[in-house]
Amino acid sequence: MLKLIPGPPGYPIVGNLFDVRDEVPIQGLSSLADKYGPIYKLSFPNAFGGYEIVVISSVQLLEELSDEKRFHKVVSAGLDQLGGDGPQGLFRSSSEADPDWGQAHRVLVPAFGPLSIVDMFDEMHDIATQMILKWARKGPDHRIPVTEDFTRLTLDTIALCAMGYRFNSFYQEGMHPYVKAMISALTAANEPPSLFGILWNRTTGGKEKQLQEDRITMNTIANDVVRQRREHPTDKKDLLNAMIKGKDPKTGETMRTELITVNMVSFLTAGHETTSGLLSFAFTLLLKNPAAYERAQAEVDTIVGQGRVKVEHLKQFEYLNAVLRETLRLQPTAPAFSRGLQPGNDEAAPSLGGYAINRRTKILALLPRCHRDPEVYGADAHEFKPERMLDASFSRLPRSAWKPFGTGVRACIGRPFAWQEALLVMALVLQSFDLRLDDPSYELRIKQTLTIKPRDLYMHASPRNGMN
Ligand code: HEM
């Protein structure tokens, strides 16, 4: 006999909409998990198509949800609002059966593979050095706006590595029009709609006009970059050339311009906020844990010394790897992903963890909770302890204990890119500076757009001897 999923009772018309109206939605969902347990249900009003979401918070439930035969990716409301009509990029495609997703996946998987990413190292180093020089020039009294600078870094890096385009964010005060439009779209897509908005505009709560303008700006700029590359071809081994020149191994076809543009926009969006958040959280956690900070810096000093950080060094950074893993365990910067029943799943009574679910139910994996499951991580699951993520212990974890890059065939295609970039930047920063928090009593606070980042975080960087 299947059990009924618990959850807050909700109200007429708005359902549970106001139960998750936390400024940081992920924290609102987490508080509900405290009250209702590792699986609970929320219902949303007809204005949103009348659907329900089931939220899960344990490793055991995530393991079941990761079964690709039974469940698949469902596009979340926030992601859905970012796109418009026309083809969907890899990220937003609602089905693996979509021929556009299939083509882009087959063409891009090799372009995102570890070997291709190694070829991007020098360009990553170029942008990271711009940030290091800026911090050195500004000196130890400068209050570094950590998340802003890491966002400049990750955005410039993905734009240069993916399509040979320089935003030059470290050389200007204001933001490039693409960046302004993207921030505005991400903010609008994440804002909870007002009640008036819900009644007035059935699907987006009144944000459609702003989103529409932002999408046009982003698509026009990306389209221009694609056009220029077609007019002035290069041999550069980047993602843009992979899409322009690459033939789908299944159909032999090349990708049409419209699909290339939408995928470029996907990479610029998916490829920077998450990594910027990862770096910001990693340094916050290190600065709050001096023993871990010292061990990380000592590892860089031992392996690299005062010379140039090279790609060969990265695989030797066992502790830095553990720091990044532990950071994404506690603060998974893409904090949730949604799944639903596979269309071909013909279970007579669909279920999850012995609970009945509906065919249209979206199931949200709440990663900050799953990653702190005391059954797997013990009573100190909330503490930052990189040692538990060193290779030997990491490889012994249950399969679904750490899923910051999603799961299955729709897992993050950019993982090797993000990892190489984050390791390089950590190593360069630790090698070049001694860091301190602007406010030594800073307690981690979160801000959320589609991803999460530390809020109001500032630090100072004092150049070390022999800075490179
Ligand atoms: C998918 C996380 C970096 C491009 C995903 C998903 C997650 C994720 C959780 C699955 C989303 C879902 O199931 O709905 C992260 C994290 C990153 C990161 C935590 C950094 C720390 C990147 C980078 C790129 C990228 C650097 C591009 C250069 C993508 C794309 C997809 C994706 C295109 C969709 C793949 C598909 O559906 O076929 N990412 N990501 N990500 N990510 Fe990342």
Outline the structure in words.
- It contains 20 helices and twelve strands.
- The strands form four sheets. The chain has a five-stranded mixed beta sheet, sandwiched between helices.
- With 468 residues, the chain is of the alpha+beta class.
- The longest helix has 24 residues.
- α6 packs antiparallel against α7.
- Protoporphyrin IX containing FE binds next to α12, α13 and α20.
Report, as a whole number of angstroms, the end-to-end distance.
65 Å
- Number of helices in the DSSP assignment: 20
Low-confidence segments, ≥5 residues, pLDDT <50? 193-203
The shape is globular
Helix content: 40-55%
Radius of gyration from the CA trace? 22 Å
Strand content: 5-15%
How many beta-strand runs? 12
Computed structural class: alpha+beta
Bound molecules: protoporphyrin IX containing FE
User: Reading side by side through the largest sheet, how are the strands ordered?
Assistant: 1-2-8-5-3
Query: What would the average pLDDT be, to the nearest integer?
Result: 90
